[in-house]
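Q: Joint fold for the lines below.
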Amino acid sequence: MFLRLLSDVQWRAAHPKWRRMTSSQRSTSTTAEPHPVSLPAQAQVVICGGGIMGTSVAYHLSRMGWKDIVLLEQGRLAAGTTRFCAGIVSTARPMSIELKMAHYSNKLYQQLEQETGVQTGYMKTGSISLAQTQDRLISLKRIASSLNVMGIPCEIISPKKVVQLHPLINIHDLVGAMYVPEDALVSSANVSLALATAASRNGVQIHERTSVSHVTVQKGRVTGVETDRGRIQCEYFVNCAGQWAYELGHSGEEPVHIPLHACEHFYLLTHPLKEPLSSSLPTVVDPDGRIYIRNWQGGILSGGFEKNPKPLFTEGRNQLEIQNLQEDWDHFGPLLSALLRRMPGLEALQIKQLVNCPESFTPDMRCIMGESPTARGYFVLAGMNSAGISYGGGAGKYLAEWMVNGYPSENVWPLDLKRFGPLQSSRTFLRHRVMEVMPLMYDLKVPRWDFQTGRQLRTSPLYDRLDAQGARWMEKHGFERVKYFVPPGKDLLDLDHSKTFYKPDWFDIVGSEVKCCKEAVCVIDMSSFTKFEISSTGDQALETLQYLFSNDLDVPVGHVVHTGMLNEKGGYENDCSIARLSKRSFFMISPTDQQVHCWAWLKNHLPNDSNLTMEDVTWKYTALNLIGPRAVDVLSELSYAPMTAEHFPSLFCKEMSVGYANGIRVMSITHTGEPGFVLYIPIEYALHVYNEVMNMGQKYGIRNAGYYALRSLRIEKFFAFWGQDLDAFTTPMECGREFQVKLEKGMQFVGQEALLEQKQNGVYKRFTMFILEDHDTDMDLWPWWGEPIFRNGRYVGKTTSSAYSYTLERHVCLGFVHHFDEKTGEELVVTTDFINQGEYEIDIAGQRFQAKAKLYPFSSLFTQRRRKDEVELS
Amino acid sequence: FYLTPPQVNSILKANEYSFKVPEFDGKNVSSVLGFDSNQLPANAPIEDRRSAATCLQTRGMLLGVFDGHAGCACAQAVSERLFYYIAVSLLPHETLLEIENAVESGRALLPILQWHKHPNDYFSKEASKLYFNSLRTYWQELIDLNSGETTDVREALINAFKRLDNDISLEAQVGDPNSFLNYLVLRVAFSGATACVAHVDGVDLHVANTGDSRAMLGVQEEDGSWSAVNLSYDHNAQNEHEVERVKMEHPKSEEKSLVKQDRLLGLLMPFRAFGDVKFKWSIELQKRVIESGPDQLNDNEYTKFIPPNYHTPPYLTAEPEVIHHKLRPQDKFLILATDGLWETMHRQDVVRIVGEYLTGVHHQQPIAVGGYKVTLGQMHGLLTERRARISSVFEDQNAATHLIRHAVGNNEFGTVDHERLSKMLSLPEELARMYRDDITIIVVQFNSHVIGAY
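A: Joint structure:
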């Protein structure tokens, strides 16, 4: 309750404008007249939620010039999760987009008091993240590398230095720590009030005690908002309802799926120490002890992320659960032990309160932002995974940019609402998943970890067969995919022990799968890929696709085209393969996680023409990828059809029979650059075709392979993947894919102008392949992604993916190289010479490794041995 | 001969079963948190049975214990069949029609019950067809009867008990062409069983009892202490009302011979029971059925024996007494147990032991700092102590097991004595029945939050 009082005092002291606006009797009593001003009948934007997110969006929208904005809050401003937030602004985030949001927030809050006159309690204290193990220290070093190249001061320090910064810390079990001196503390409620004050001065109308019952949507567009005080017509709606965002999303006729779920979150407040703690003492994060500790009113505030979280509100707003939100000391016990182990000197400190404040968590630990795929104008910003105050400023800014400009100024795909669909919206799934996510906040995050809950939702019909053959699984967009196959008799480490930043235990297993792909033939189940069919009665399909895709799709029937689906700036919204099945129908294959995004993009861009139909056929086909020089032999024996290059050239598509099954769509593509085919099999034939392929393949040495092998193959071949290397801010020109763009195809297409300009003026970043030179695979830390790239000692960009190449026997990293002016930092054009004439290093957790840069793949790897064999034979 | 603690545990835990009601089943928040049940045999084979099931077409949960005598056939049949009779009695007319239509047209039936069974709780496959036909006749009659009134739980329970007993009796009279089944229905009818069944739906708790098993409510008083509330009356010689009732139903001339040595006609301990046609049928009927029955029946001295002073049958009924109780937040649990438990322990002790066990494991009073001055160190000490208490004392994961441990192993001071426990459990089969009876216990836990919100 204390924080509540605090915020009320500030609230009156500041005399924010809306208070006077909404108070018809000019009394200071805030409760006498709850609804003095009636709601406007219409507005351009209605924002629901008066917490840090809602006020930040209002603030940024109004700063960007949008004025006709109404913010509705069901209770009082900053009274929900925001009020109880611990108020720690921390930039130590592993993901670069999150790091950027936190960095911006910090800068914003710093000057907010000056800008608005509202005291925000901003105090630059710095933060110390402690490492009890070497692995933890590695993860901190990786973050430190990221922070440093962003220009955020950051230091890896010894335990001794920790004591100098914070005398209460017990350091006997520490191996090191990371110090970020510019991290800060704020009163989050007051930050929110300050943002509201500034927004209100810019003309935003704020109405408290007004709750939104649902949002109305007509013809796929937001038209208005129904509240308990009447209707407001609007063009844009922003759902910033925090832990109630899921329910609000589901309240309308057309549900907007916002997958988040609340968990109870506890922190402890104490009375001041005998000698009150200084308010400039740094915040301490002890992830191995699962706790954070900050100074608070001369005492401390300490909370954490326990192993056994308590999810709540699964059934929605349940009065019982709200009443039962009370202190649970037994639950807090382990965290209290960790606190006293870290700061034994606090034993005699008196308890003030144990605060229980629900926080919302998302299925992948990243926040949710963006526009609904089904209702245009319906924006969402929620699910902050307890980092609301750190992200508040930056997230609000990106969303405001998105609404005003059509897209934010940074790639926010990792946070985009459209990475989820109805798939992740089951309450049972969310309940179970957040119970895994919350402890993960402080768990060690190593490369290639997978969620363990909410699994086996979407599976290939071959799942059981593959599982019985030793498949180990990972999940993408709810779909189970094979990582690799553990051969019989071989054991791998259990989940906990296999966590490593070094060479993983599956190294040899994947190595032999790769070898088989190169020398014989492998089968990979790739059913998870998103598959659409687009067809029309006339030429509409071709015309529309020609406009939406950069490559020329007016190819003979039976041809397959790799092409980008670009935005106006020429950036990749999607990267796909399209087969022309007939004059008037096309079959499109996109990455797994494109299912919602690509569908929404196409829906929004396809003309409203009943003669043009699009169907999601992902579930109808099982995809088997036959990779390797012997794939052709297996397939021709099974189909009694000649499959050689003359009869079946690459990038070709034909319906044919395989075994007894007819109507199998065979395409001569692989996603790795190896020779091979992908078979799209109607699911009822899947098992039959798989069995036939495996039986027939035996004499050619066929075996199962998984995605790890695929990954190694595609990276050594310099193949970029959407979502990993490519995003909405990358153009084909920047990644050496000019050949997939037909600027002269005789008609306009989206992004054409931008690409033309790049063709003339050059690009500002360039996708480059790096081969690590002095890296010891057995002894050194492995690259992952996000490692800084240095050219002649200067930072030029980050890696986007990496893998061990079993052929080169070296690590290969892919990443983007920029050219920053040495003096001004301005971005300059990147030329081939610039790339080729540099000395490169890759920074893995603070250690730099020499790397050789290449703009084109090794040609030797491309020679198809099959062809050579044939030549020799003939 | 001495059993080690792990051996004792494996005996005690062999039949334990726990069911946690899903906190939210998609429709309702349940007032039942879950139940623990367990059995300890003294007879070989055990003659007690237990059942638990969730009603799927109506709301509520059914739990029951059944104590067989003169064999286990009747208790087994009742444990399989009674809940179906109750569930059918509770069904609204439309649902009955729907089910009948489904059977008629060979479509899949709506599931009526979801059983919660220990792997050892079996159903007799051979008789299922026969049982189903009897049940179907019952619901067809209910459909024809269509009173149009909403079903009263009390009446439904009484009707179901009486109907099942009637069906058991009829099946034995009619017989079955299959000789195995024929012998089975006769064994069911000539043996007997008591039944104590609870139906919980929201705050409405009904207990229907026939015989001398018992339902006991555990109530936590404001000061945290426990008290026991009877939700059933024993039907035996100790119950004056029962003795009175039996005497009322027969001519004055039989008054002396009705109850002898605390037994009905000097033979039967419970005054109400399923089966036991020896106490229900006329002498002529008994003789006719036995003579036309299989040889095994004819050779059995017990079945052939006609009780003395047998003038005005029936002497026995399966009609239950039903008690309705509105659950309150202080009602924490319900214990259903056969007389094997109640003859060894006082009901107050039973409720106290279960109450302390459950709060220790699940409902340890939450700590609140409130306005007190508490330091971090003190709080830490307190929490550590609470955790230690939980983990060390309660080796049992099941309240029913815990109760059996006390019932069998308690010494004169009311604490479990391992040596005594070991002796009691290692008695040879033929001796066990002299020292203890079969014990069957179900402990149902209620959700006070849900009950308080009604």
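Q: Anything notable?
A: The first strand of chain A starts at residue 42 and ends at 48. The radius of gyration of chain A is 28 Å.
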